[in-house]
Amino acid sequence: MFYVDGKWVQADELTVHPEDRGYNFGDGVYEVVRIYKGKMYQWEGHLTRLFRSAREIMLDLPWTAEELSAVAEELLAKNNITSADDATLYLQVTRGVSPRVHDIPKGIRPVIMGFVRRKERPLADMKKGLSAQLVEDIRWLRCDIKTLNLLGAVMVKQYAKDAGAQESILHRDGIVTECSAANVFVVKDNELYTHPANHLILNGITRLDVIALAKANGIKVHEEPFTVDFLKQADEVFATGTTVEVMPIISVDGQAVGSGKIGPVVERLQQLFEEHIYANALV
Predict the structure, then answer these.
(1) What residues contact residue 12 under an 8 Å CB cut-off, 6+ apart?
(2) Catalytic site residue 106?
(3) β-bridge partners, 193
(4) Taking Cα atoms as reference points, which of 250, 1, 246 lies closest to residue 123?
(5) Whole-model pTM?
(6) Which terminus of the chain, N or C, has fewer Cβ atoms within 10 Å?
(7) DSSP classification of residue 12
(8) How far does CA 89 lie from the centroid of its chain?
């Protein structure tokens, strides 16, 4: 079942108004929430970010946090998500329907939509790692806002795939930013490096968890810009995200990262993250 603008509908009943601003302009915001064993992981963090994204694009959400939580819980129930299921929940809000003009019309009502998909954890990829391609960061300059404007991310992911890689690592003026749909970390001398959370990256929920887990377990974290050359000299590289968790990257531009295998720091962080999910987040 899909939740669309206050109604519960099946896929074949879905319609999008031709002048919905999300459809015309990508004028809206969204969140993807991980479901582990039937429970929403870091829901409050995702909800907080949804409201922040909406404020940043001058979109007033007419629902309370409690009302959105009720919608999310009902999505799980109506789609029969049980304690045996891993899944993802997608929640999207567009600015609404109005005649197609570039400025923001007054008095239009936002449109909400949500759905759930069963999705297993990427355990096989987490054990063997992914290949990545360095790609110029061609996205707009407000990557901190989780909007529907994802064409830039789509293109850089496709550039990487066309080069034979599974993921892209983006750089802007020689400074590494993030991946197409995930944050990126490098490990050097057992310490983590990742781009600071400013307008050039999305401050990922999993990114924040990994930073906190690393610090709590004696792994030093540097949130500072680093270059493409620094990344190429890394001992380990990994991506973090809602659906990829802690994902090793074992080659960049066809060259092995470190030994070309998953390193000890990444393995440790994977273990810590899994323990965090099942010992704390799902209580």
Answers:
(1) none
(2) no
(3) 186, 222
(4) 246
(5) 0.96
(6) C
(7) G
(8) 12
